[in-house]
Structure formats: C-alpha cells, structure tokens
Backbone:
C-alpha cells in the first residue's frame, strides 16, 4: 500500500485525502496551522489520520508521494528535505487527474482566469453537458473526482498548482495574460513566473489546443522562444486572426476547423476590453468541443460575472459603487480603471506585492478625481500619485472609507474599490474586503 502524505488540511488537502483513501492509499494529513472543524469532521468520518499545529517529520519523510497545498512555498526546509530524499511532491491537480478520463479545459493567467473559468462552465452547462468546475475556485477537484463521473472539467489553475504537475495535461489550455505577480515565490524573477504559467501546455500534444492572448507581448515573446506542441488558437482585439478569435469595434469573429461564429460585442453581458478577451477565450474553447453557436451566443449574453470582480453594488444619488476587491495586482486594477467611463473616487491599497504603479498613470490622470488609501502602509501609493491627484486621504477601516467616498463623490461619478494589493493587513481575504465594502455601501 502506497503512503500519501498531504501537507495542508484545507479544501484541496482534504479533497485529495478523500480520493486517495478511496483509491487504497495509506493517507496522513499534516497542517502547520489549525485544521478547521468542518475539515476535521470529514477526516474523522473517512478514518484518515491527521495532525495540526505541527509537522511530525518522521511521519512525513516516510511517504511514497506528497501532495502539498498551493499555499506552501517550495523553499521551506521540510519540502527541501523531501526533495533530497527524492520523494515526489505534487499538486492536487496532478494527483486527481490520474483518476479521471474526463476532458479537461485548464485556465491560467495573471488576471481573468476566474471569469473565464466561470464563463466556460456556464456555456457547457447551458448546453446540458455533465461538467465540474474546480481548481482554484469552488470545491476541491480531487473530491469531485472521488464523488462524481463528469464528462468535462473546467479548472482554474494557479501558477502554484502548475508548479506541482508532472503528467497533467488539459485537452484545451487557456492562458489569459501574464503580468508580474507573486514574484516573491519566484526568486523575484519574472521569467520564472512566466515559465510556471506555461507549464499548463508542457504535456500537451498536437491533438490538444492552446488558446492565448496574441496582444500580450510577454506571452507571445515567450511562445516564440519556447514553442508548444498543441494547436495554437490566438485571440486579439488588435488584428485579424485566421484560426482563433478577433474583434473589431462591433463584432467578434471566432474561427475553428474552418467554421466561423460571429457575435455582436454589444450583446455581451460583461463590460470592458479585458472581458471582451475573456469572452473570446471562453467562446473559442466552447466552440472547439462542439458547443452549438446559439448556446454560446445566449450564454455570453446572460452570464453573471464573478463576485468581487467589477461587481456593481448600488447606485446612490446617481453615483455608481463598484466592488473590484478581487483586483489584487496592478494589472487587474488597470482593467478596472480602463472600464470606468466617469470621474472616479478610487479606493486602493493593502499589502503591496512589489507593485509598480507606473502603468496606471495615464488612466489615473484621465479618470481619478480622488484617492482613498485603505491599508496600514500607504507610503508607496501616496508617493506614486501625490503629484497627479489633488485629493488623497488615508483610512483604516471599510466603513470610514465608504463614508469618505460618499462625501467626495458627485452626481455622475463612480466609487471604485480596486485595491491593486492583497488584503491581509486589514481583512481576512479579498472576499471579506469586498463583502465589507458592499455592506458599508448598503448602510449609507
């Protein structure tokens, strides 16, 4: 009997434990933090041995294989010891994929992956396909594989999850874009992060498809130097594409296998250039697996976007309040500011991941009338925009922030929460930050 040790007793760890137990492994779950009650109960129900608030090395270093949760960096001593002993350390995505024959659509990218994943899932479900959505979103992929027999999986995959793959291969891979993010995990080398994202295509063959943004220079430059085997399906809003997707002002044209689908851009439920691209990527993937044109058209017209991503909260006295708490990097905030059409009171700040705010300058000059910094340390933001925006104030809780925004905003303005930073200084996570924003707006 093979021994599987799982590091991390959260959603992916416990899901993997359930699948491994079902497949006859001896399973041990170890978490340095505290395992939540709901997960403890599941482990006890399945009679899986576990520990928390420690890693007992003798119980870990005797593993045949280790599954580590994406939040654990490779640099820690325990992982280094496992590697020295040549014990494979893999991700949940790698482990679970061995136990399903379902067709996999895998989606990665610095931004847009959640929206694209949800949209692909929505289109496939609308066609009546038996589909599971997992990965970096929703329920554990391994748990789904253990409990269901889906024909298709739509997986949102982070770079951390891709770092732990060996044989994992999606039939269709989507790479939405690349911008510097999480560089603290990649020795502060952008090329290491890019290489990690491209692992989504490394096991693909000529029978598979690779959908990507042809307007993203970092991505296309990398692809020229490191070609992939899969059939390339680019999409663009800057030039025409023969095989793939492109958009002119009013139309989207998607061509796969000599068959073309046309849609009007004004029929899409999602606004902004970035969402036009997300829609092209999702529609191309759906068309490649044979979804009917009518289903794709209807699905992109009635899709409700991801929570905390450019989510319209309320309009109060002709001022629009938008929750974009999921914008945890500069690139995501760029898209948010780009999609706003009116003078903006911008709420920004949090835990800076080595941000460079230069790319936001033109948009801030053009659209932002006031900035509210919501973070423990706002020095960098004040230095970056102090000469560009006349009104910059600091706030330290959400209720105060929203009250200040309410006073600053005038008829026809937008109040935009798009932090460009992680949330852990003042909030549990970006969802908590977004929910507090919505509650504060509703209490005005």
Residues:
């Amino acid at each position: 009997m093979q021994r599987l040790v799982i590091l991390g007793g959260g959603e992916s760890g416990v899901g993997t434990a359930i699948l491994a137990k079902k497949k006859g492994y001896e399973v041990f779950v170890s978490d340095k933090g505290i395992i939540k009650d709901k997960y403890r109960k599941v482990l006890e129900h399945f009679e899986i041995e576990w520990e928390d608030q420690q890693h007992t090395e003798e119980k870990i270093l005797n593993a045949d294989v280790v599954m580590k949760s994406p939040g654990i960096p490779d640099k820690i001593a325990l992982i280094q010891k496992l590697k020295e002993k040549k014990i494979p350390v893999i991700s949940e995505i790698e482990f679970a994929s061995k136990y399903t024959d379902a067709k996999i659509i895998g989606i990665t990218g610095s931004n847009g992956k959640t929206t694209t994943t949800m949209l692909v899932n929505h289109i496939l479900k609308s066609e009546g396909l038996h589909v599971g959505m997992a990965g970096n979103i929703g329920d554990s992929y391994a748990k789904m594989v253990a409990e269901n027999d889906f024909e298709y999986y739509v997986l949102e995959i982070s770079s951390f999850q891709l770092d732990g793959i060996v044989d994992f291969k999606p039939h269709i891979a989507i790479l939405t874009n690349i911008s510097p993010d999480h560089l603290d995990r990649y020795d502060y080398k952008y090329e290491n992060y890019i290489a990690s994202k491209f692992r989504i295509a490394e096991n693909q063959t000529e029978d598979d498809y690779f959908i990507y943004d042809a307007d993203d220079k970092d991505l296309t430059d990398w692809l020229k130097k490191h070609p992939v085997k899969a059939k390339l399906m680019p999409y663009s809003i800057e030039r025409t594409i023969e095989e793939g997707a492109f958009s002119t002002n009013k139309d989207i044209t998607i061509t796969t296998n000599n068959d073309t689908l046309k849609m009007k851009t004004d029929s899409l439920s999602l606004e902004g250039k970035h969402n036009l691209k997300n829609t092209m990527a999702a529609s191309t993937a759906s068309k490649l697996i044979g979804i009917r044109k009518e289903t794709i058209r209807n699905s992109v017209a009635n899709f409700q976007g991801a929570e905390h991503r450019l989510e319209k909260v309320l309009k109060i006295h002709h001022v629009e309040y938008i929750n974009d708490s999921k914008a945890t990097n500069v690139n995501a905030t760029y898209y948010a500011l780009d999609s706003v059409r009116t003078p903006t009171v911008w709420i920004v700040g949090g835990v800076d991941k080595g941000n460079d705010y230069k790319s936001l300058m033109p948009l801030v000059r053009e659209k932002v009338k006031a900035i509210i910094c919501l973070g423990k340390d706002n020095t960098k933001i004040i230095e970056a925009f102090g000469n560009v925006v006349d009104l910059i104030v600091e706030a330290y809780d959400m209720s105060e922030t929203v009250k200040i925004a309410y006073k600053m905003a005038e008829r026809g303005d937008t109040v935009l929460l798009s932090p460009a930073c992680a949330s852990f200084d003042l909030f549990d996570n970006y969802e908590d930050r977004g929910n507090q924003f919505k509650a504060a707006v509703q209490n005005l």
Q: What stands out?
A: The chain has a mean pLDDT of 93. The chain has 17 helices and 20 strands. The CA atoms of residues 18 and 46 lie 7 Å apart.
